[in-house]
Amino acid sequence: xxxxxxxxxxxxxxxxxxxxxxxxxxxxxxxxxxxxxxxxxxxxxxxxxxxxxxxxxxxxxxxxxxxxxxxxxxxxxxxxxxxxxxxxxxxxxxxxxxxxxxxxxxxxxxxxxxxxxxxxxxxxxxxxxxxxxxxxxxxxxxxxxxxxxxxxxxxxxxxxxxxxxxxxxxxxxxxxxxxxxxxxxxxxxxxxxxxxxxxxxxxxxxxxxxxxxxxxxxxxxxxxxxxxxxxxxxxxxxxxxxxxxxxxxxxxxxxxxxxxxxxxxxxxxxxxxxxxxxxxxxxxxxxxxxxxxxxxxxxxxxxxxxxxxxxxxxxxxxxxxxxxxxxxxxxxxxxxxxxxxxxxxxxxxxxxxxxxxxxxxxxxxxxxxxxxxxxxxxxxxxxxxxxxxxxxxxxxxxxxxxxxxxxxxxxxxxxxxxxxxxxxxxxxxxxxxxxxxxxxxxxxxxxxxxxxxxxxxxxxxxxxxxxxxxxxxxxxxxxxxxxxxxxxxxxxxxxxxxxxxxxxxxxxxxxxxxxxxxxxxxxxxxxxxxxxxxxxxxxxxxxxxxxx
Length: 548
Fold this sequence. Notes:
With 548 residues, the protein is α/β, with parallel strands linked by helices. It has 3 domains: 4-68 and 306-426, Alpha-Beta Complex (inorganic pyrophosphatase (n-terminal core)); 87-254, HprK N-terminal domain-like (Udp-n-acetylmuramoylalanyl-d-glutamate--2,6- Diaminopimelate Ligase, Chain: A, domain 1, 3-Layer(aba) Sandwich); 429-545, Diaminopimelate Epimerase, Chain A, domain 1. The protein contains 19 helices and 24 strands. The longest helix is centred in the C-terminal third of the chain and has 21 residues, at 464-484.
């Protein structure tokens, strides 16, 4: 199986997350891996939106989640049987395909029943006493199964139930055998026996089958026409024809009307629950329009997924796209603290205490001796400038400066000017639309022992807009704190011109006593010379949590 590899950043992605994913996917494709696709776990924030639009770069594929779905495990083009097909044709399909269940479909490829090999076998091997003689079929189905043609009468797709009698005896004995049966409920099967043929026709039976490739005796065709008897000629001998006649029943009469079904967009866990239910051997997977997509069995639960992940700018599953814990992760590139879970197999894990994941991606281009094109170079440069706040953040390293200079040459841009353009175009809080979006735009969760905290960060030029939105932002933080059961939920509003952060926080009241920064008013603190969430804010909060 050829798997698709999604290169994807964390939830609520920032510029570094999206830029590094696009840049690394481009590098993989340059190396010849066409299965790699850049993806994102959330919509671009205003800053990233500006950068992508300015550079003319198409958005990565949006993946709201990577939870394994039914569509990921079923085999397309399932073996099916038409509702008008005969039991004999169904048996041929079972034998040829090796499947144990056949979806019964109508002309629109929509299921109308389920036929199992077990149920079909039981219907013919263990029939009830009163059904031993019964043949339920349409005239057209009977002719098709017997490879015959009507000498008198025509094909009809309407199913009828007839009692089968074999005319292999003297006419007197035969007539006494069928005495008491309604003639129009009789199917008589015989060879070249004129007396039997004539007796059946004169009695006005529904269908007379002449076996062995024989024709009606002279003068009997006119008599059959007079008595409205359907006459079917078959090349099979009587024993074979009798066996086939019983197998001419359309599968619509044999199929189970109640069956398990599931939409292809449902989770694999939902499929598991259905399959583990009582007496469920298979589940029909349906497209949104109700047509059949495939058949899922217990083996579908063990089928390998057709995709895998490369995580960018994060390594903790709590920050990853939902469902990542259920998917194979083959590589991680990150510049944050380690908080990843164990992997089942060895993977490539690139991490370094630099200011931006884009720095690590640019370094990989250099190590592979591959030149990024002008747009990718500009995008990686934007990621570095964003995460290091134009190389001013305390997280900035010499490697960030070196890679920024290298990308300047390949993008044709001046880093300082490009950085100022980026922050000038995206520093207004009004670009986010609502207070909820401001908080959620770059919100990350962190854990320390028994505590869970959430921190968002936005960069601005001046705090005027913040004060006009403060109450709405505080409410948004309170909503997130309650929803995610956090100890504290905070938002860093960082002024890149003064290198000062206002920290708005909703959480435990005792934080004020240990915060160690000036409290301007309830819920609000001033943090001078604090610009980095990763290197300054998170370590500080984790330290004071031990004292709360």
